[in-house]
Design a protein that fits this description.
Blueprint lengths: L13 E5 L4 H6 L2 H8 L2 E2 L12 E7 L22 E7 L1 E10 L4 H4 L5 H26 L5 E4 L2 E4 L20 E3 L17 H13 L12 E5 L1 H9 L7 H10 L7 H4 L9 E3 L2 E5 L5 E3 L6 E11 L4 E4 L18 E8 L4 E14 L1 E2 L2 E2 L2 E7 L6
Parallel strand pairs: 2-14, 8-19, 9-11
Antiparallel strand pairs: 1-15, 3-4, 5-16, 6-7, 9-13, 10-11, 12-13, 13-19, 14-16, 15-16, 17-18
């Protein structure tokens, strides 16, 4: 008797499980989504115009440098050409999967755990954490030999999975500040902690060196600190301007409702505070320091990033729903697929991301972002 084969690995055995995903729901829980909503990330639907291709090039226009012409002058023949620049990035695929026993199995009957649902949730968290890490490694210019994300250590070629699937550019000349005026990250000591003074210096550099930074909505900037840096900032007693002193008048005046020091959220996307026009956020995925000697990761140093508009570029073939309702058509960068094996006794769910993230630069200078490198070790008391 002949039986029509359907072996494991057969192309017809792969079933599209769902294109109606919760990508937007995932974004709300991660800093990537917050950056996209704030305008720090130039979204894919503003970039991708071509129907095919995995490389995106955007046009940049620099400032005009001519003198201009006044009364009695002749402008014809003295025109100036546009200073045209191009910035390119790629997108690629990043996949992971979870295998589990199917619905009609004795293993599933022994537990109330819904393996399929838990697999999808775990894969969303997996991709969300790697996407966040990619944003901070790109903005921080981090290409250390090893990169730790939630206990998984990436090395070699695998580092690109937590670097936005694009090459890393080190912080440019005027776009990195180190506490204590340290020459490099390995020279930063325990005395070189995060202060409000450093935010002042970062703002000055962004606004006085070319290309000058463009702010986010409300003429604001956002800074992302590690939790260690945030604690050092709150405890600082050496800076010219100190955290609690900055908020003391508001607290003494009874303004607790609108005071971020009282209402901030250290575990979400609400700022823990605000200084001048800078919203202060925390994330456990702010990148570590990098040794200039051997490119090793320095776990006691963190590279905070202060960002303005379009500091990061994001691209994907599925670019239509970085915000809004993603349940109508599934045009999102993260999609799930399910494979049945052994007569549906074993199932596997794949989370597949098709995307790219890259820090934007203009004329070899980081655009609208700056790194603040400080001591950032865990506290014991």
């Amino acid at each position: 008797m002949a039986v029509t084969p359907m072996n494991r690995g057969d192309a017809l055995n792969v079933e599209l499980w769902s294109s109606q995903l919760r990508f937007v729901e995932m974004m709300k829980r991660y800093q990537f989504g917050h950056m996209a909503a704030r305008g720090t990330i130039m979204r894919a639907d503003e970039l991708d115009r071509a129907e095919a291709g995995d490389k995106i090039t955007i046009q940049q226009i620099g400032r005009l440098t001519g003198e201009g012409i006044g009364e009695g002058g002749t402008l014809e023949g003295n025109e100036e050409a546009l200073n045209q620049q191009g910035f390119s990035m790629v997108f690629n695929v990043f996949r992971h999967a979870v295998a589990y026993y199917g619905k009609s199995t004795v293993e599933q009957a022994r537990t109330l755990v819904k393996y399929q649902e838990r697999a999808e949730e775990a894969l969303r968290n997996f991709h969300g954490s790697r996407l966040d890490a990619s944003c901070f490694n790109q903005l921080g210019g981090v290409n250390s030999t090893t990169i730790d994300v939630d206990g998984t250590v990436y090395s070699g070629a695998a580092r690109t999975f937590v670097q936005g699937l694009n090459s890393i550019a080190a912080p440019s000349t005027n776009r990195i500040i180190r506490a204590g005026a340290a020459a490099n990250d390995e020279s930063i000591t325990s005395a070189d902690t995060m202060t409000l003074d450093l935010i002042d210096v970062a703002l000055e550099k962004l606004q006085t060196t070319y290309p000058t930074a463009e702010a986010l909505d409300g003429n604001e900037f956002d800074i992302y600190l590690s939790h260690q840096q945030a604690l050092d900032l709150r405890r600082d007693t050496s800076g010219s301007i100190q955290w609690y002193t900055n908020y003391l008048s508001a607290m003494e005046g009874g303004n607790l409702t609108d005071n971020p020091i009282m209402t901030g959220d250290a575990y979400g996307t609400k700022p823990i505070g605000k200084y001048q026009n800078v919203n202060i956020y925390t994330s456990n995925r702010v990148a570590t320091g990098v040794s200039s000697a051997d490119s090793s990761a320095i776990s006691t140093v963190r590279r905070a990033v202060l960002c303005g508009k379009d500091a990061l570029l994001f691209s994907s073939k599925f670019s239509g729903a970085l915000t809004g309702d993603d349940t109508k058509g599934g045009n999102v960068p993260l999609q799930f697929f399910r494979e049945d094996r052994d007569f549906q006794y074993v199932e596997a769910t794949e989370g597949r991301m098709l995307y790219g993230v890259k820090k934007q630069q203009f004329e070899s200078e980081d655009l609208n972002s700056i790194v603040i490198s400080t001591y950032g070790a865990s506290h014991t008391s």
